[in-house]
Design a protein that fits this description.
This protein is an all-alpha fold. The protein has 6 helices and no strands. Helix 3 (32-38) crosses helix 6 (79-89). GO terms for molecular function: glutathione binding; glutathione transferase activity.
Length: 91
């Protein structure tokens, strides 16, 4: 399931900087906690297989607002982390 999700992201991101378009939106932010948790797992190196997802993630992390929110934020924060755990278990 995790591979499929990353493939969906990868197929969408060549057309725009963010998931729905060229501007950050709630769609990107709703996937943030999922990716934040994913990047703390043993599978994080799989991101190298998805260059557009990797660029999208880097763009999110570079935003001052995201940097501010991440201070003190645990990696398993939010529903996205729960979903990511479920996807990893299904691998």
């Amino acid at each position: 399931k995790l591979k499929k999700l990353l493939e969906v992201y990868e197929s969408r991101l060549p057309r725009s900087k963010y998931l729905p378009g060229d501007f950050i939106s709630l769609a990107d932010l709703s996937h943030f906690s999922f990716m934040r948790y994913f990047m703390t797992t043993e599978y994080a190196d799989q991101l190298d297989t998805y260059p557009h997802v990797k660029a999208w993630w880097a763009a999110l992390l570079a935003r001052p607002s995201v940097k501010k929110v991440m201070v003190g934020m645990p990696p398993d924060f939010g529903f996205g982390a729960f979903l990511c755990k479920e996807y990893i278990i299904a691998m």
